[in-house]
Fold this protein.
Amino acid sequence: MCGIVGLYLKKPELESRLGEFVSDMLEEMGDRGPDSAGVAIYRNPAPEGGSKVSLFSASSNEDWPARTAQASQAFDLEFHLEIHASHAILTSSAPVGEIERWIRSNWSDLRIMSVGESIEIYKEMGHPKAVAERFGFKNFSGTHAVAHTRMATESAVTTEHSHPFSTGLDLCLVHNGSLSNHNRLRNFLTRQGGQFQTDNDSEVAAGYLTWRLSLGESVVDALESAIRDLDGFYTFAIGSSNGFSVLRDPIACKPAVLAENDDWVAMSSEYRAIARLPDAKHSNIWEPAPAQIYSWERSKTEAGTQNAV
Amino acid sequence: MQFDLATQSLREINAALHHSDREEGEEYVIAHPKGTHSVAVGLTDPIDVTIDGHVGYYCAGMNKNASIHIAGNAGPGLAENMMSGRVVVDGNASQYAGASGHGGLLVIKGNTSSRCGISMKGINIVVGGSIGHFGAFMAQSGRLVVCGDCGGNLGDSIYEAHIYIRGEIDSLGSDCIEKEMIPDHQRELEVLLQNAGLHYSTAEFRRYGSARTLYNFHIDNADAI
């Protein structure tokens, strides 16, 4: 099964409540995915040209301040540390490429969950309600978020197998469904230089998008290619620094509901998650059509929003 | 009689609707459905139920005799396997609405998505808006009326159900063809539109049904998928 949630706020005055809204939606989708849960939230961008990295440690007594001091010394820069349960967010003016390379060669015992300017990814095993409480999602502010509740059907239940999967700088993917050509595609992508941490099919979809984006395609073009190359059932939600996109496969068995009003755009596997949002009953509600890409983006230059379908 | 899903459990409400000591035409209202699944399923009494809001999966499933009005949208599996009675949705409905229904009337005033009326066995379905792909897939009997447009593969592998479409059709499914509309069909359609409260002229519709080429095994079809 699995449950998907996406929320994009149109009004800055609602941003302080993003975490509260997403936690409510995630909890409502708990029945669809009681194994594990994760959230990608976009907020507090790093300084221009700098970076933000989400890290996961399997160790229960991780010494994050010592790690931060080590990074500060290596880069001769100040690093800002924020700890949330098993995850930590390191923000600095260090360029994204350099910090990622440095972490991979110096901290191989840590898992990089996301890299970018504003993305933060948190994911863990457990019931979505418990996961949301562990990380304290309710208190998070932000502009938009995508989240996932997982009911594993084809690979193990671990933190690494949980969604969202990072697909590049400030990009992530959550998936409801199952892909049937993921083994062959993983082999192909590995030959193109792709790196995979698990045997999970959704990670292959994320790796596929990473590869298409590395060829210079836009998110929308990469999704057009995905319709051609991915075989299986899927509803995807893709988070980017400016908004999120939704795509269902051409058969469209996996559910999806979109809703929009003056305050927000929401996506979920079921309406009952959207029903938790203010004034949901009177929003415009519809089911996304098969093989059609829906995307919402906040324009970087203007405060307004645009809906590019 | 008023129920409220904000304060009462679904099981409690459905159980109350199941007990058959009700007078015919007794009215029930269910408030705050908020996308809950399986609201008003398995009803057997001739009662009137109004659900004030949007419902989740499987609303009004297996309905017999009851008249159920959804003042909102409905999720997947609306009125699945309906036997008789009437289900009306003011808004849109999701996938496989009216699937495998044996009888009764399902009216969706808005749009509905894929597999509407899949394997229908006698139910009448009237859609005020448009439907998605694979409408009336393997439909055996009953009638599907669509006042808007249809997605691809309409009536694939259809048996003897009658399909009436007012708008555009993306594509017809395997063994589904346009058929002549004789006065009997005009009358049948007129009654269905009347019962659904829709005011279209039957002349605006075209009829589709089975070419009956798949009824018996034919070696030339062996490679068809």
